[in-house]
Amino acid sequence: DAGVIQSPRHEVTEMGQEVTLRCKPISGHNSLFWYRQTMMRGLELLIYFNNNVPIDDSGMPEDRFSAKMPNASFSTLKIQPSEPRDSAVYFCASSPTGSWDEQYFGPGTRLTVT
Amino acid sequence: SQQGEEDPQALSIQEGENATMNCSYKTSINNLQWYRQNSGRGLVHLILIRSNEREKHSGRLRVTLDTSKKSSSLLITASRAADTASYFCATTGRDSSYKLIFGSGTRLLVRP
After folding, report:
1. Phi, psi (5° rounding) for residue B81?
2. Which candidate, A43, B80, B91, B92, has a CA 20 to 30 Å from the CA of A18?
């Protein structure tokens, strides 16, 4: 298995632009997570999907952030409009069931908003 | 917000030595997991220990859990330069089966 796949690996954009991050979870996993990692706040859970349904989006910072999972093999995290404080590494992770499981992380997308 | 705190924040040892990292957490847990993150990479799961377990081994890794003290330790024996990475503990609570709460991490440097 190729593991969790994320694209792009790096994204540099200007403030106000729309940014879309993409994730392909491991086949057969029914849970998907989006995290954000910064030096100041560490790793934070943004949103959790189970069987393609958003279960917990309490970590999404504000309305500028949205996430979708149209099918079991694809998810997007969108930021519109982007701001410099959104600069971070965004990770996607998947797990077999989601319940107390280990999670498998993708390589991350390093986002820089200037 | 972070559930746990790792100690020390940074650790530098010589290749061949043992490395011990500690993690403390605040609320009751279902399990505790340790992850490794190499610079510029995603996290890799190392080991999971359940709340009713006290010790677990995996290769050169040994994890202990003391629920009365709300703490865990990760021991890496006979360290190698390739073990250089950041190590995070993460907990899942009894009331939230999916939510991993990560600590702040320990940066380990193994000098060749």
Report:
1. -55, -35
2. A43
Count of CB atoms situated within 10 Å of the CB of B95: 9
Local confidence band at A1 (pLDDT 50, 70, 90 cut-offs) = low
| Contact flag A100-B98 (C-beta cutoff 8 Å) | yes
Query: Are B97 and A99 inside 8 Å of each other by CB?
Result: yes
Q: How far is A102 from chain B (nearest CA, A)?
A: 7
Would you place residue A75 in the very low, low, confident or very high pLDDT band (cuts 50, 70, 90)?
Answer: very high
Closest to A43 (Cβ–Cβ): which among B31, B98, B102? B102
> Cα A106 from chain centroid?
9
B71-110 residue pLDDT tens: 999 999 999 999 999 999 999 887 777 788 898 899 999 9
3-state secondary structure of B31: strand
Closest Cα partner for A78 from A9, A23, A3? A23
